[in-house]
């Protein structure tokens, strides 16, 4: 099956990328549950999050902290919520979601934002991540 996130890693399809290092990539979810909904992925192609080796898992959590701080600074939200689902895309990923209310964590409701809005959010998060 096509790994859509590998295509993003390889720049075969576009994405609003907020962070990249040698092991991880973070980009805006194309159908966010709230503005700023970000996905963090390892560059290694593994479907199930808990099949990642322990070192990658640990590094990914530490990386998610850095991205979440950038999201928090951008949106001044109460918390950044984290979820691992993976029922749709078979490439391990974490959802990082700006939260002000429990309703913000609703994966049955997706929105679409205009390109200029996604671009603005992307640049703001990127600029707020301490590398
Ligand atoms: P899950 O697999 O965790 O259930 O959900 C996968 C998430 O990836 C969804 O929130 C969906 O909107 C997002 N997604 C699916 N395809 C793409 C894509 O091509 N680009 C981006 N940026 N997000 C995607």
pLDDT < 50 runs, ≥5 residues: none
The best one-word shape is globular
Order of helical and strand elements: HEEEHEEH
- The CATH first-level class comes to Alpha Beta
Structural class: alpha+beta
Tell me what the structure shows.
The chain is α+β, with helices and mostly antiparallel strands and 131 residues long. The chain has a single domain (4-128), classed as HIT family, subunit A, CATH 3.30.428.10. Helices cover 32% and strands 19% of the residues. It has helices spanning 4-9, 54-75, 115-128, and strands at 17-20, 24-28, 38-42, 79-83, 94-99. The protein has a five-stranded antiparallel sheet. Helix 2 crosses helix 3 (115-128). The radius of gyration is 14 Å and the shape is globular. The mean pLDDT is 97. The chain binds guanosine-5'-monophosphate.
In short:
By secondary structure, the chain is an alpha+beta fold. It has helices spanning 4-9, 54-75, 115-128, and strands spanning 17-20, 24-28, 38-42, 79-83, 94-99.
Q: Which short descriptors sum up this protein?
A:
3 helices; five-stranded antiparallel β-sheet; HIT family, subunit A; alpha+beta; binds guanosine-5'-monophosphate; 131 residues; 5 strands
Give the topology.
Layout: H1 4-9, E1 17-20, E2 24-28, E3 38-42, H2 54-75, E4 79-83, E5 94-99, H3 115-128
Antiparallel strand pairs: 1-2, 2-3, 3-5, 4-5
The protein binds guanosine-5'-monophosphate.
The site of guanosine-5'-monophosphate has 13 residues, from strand 2.
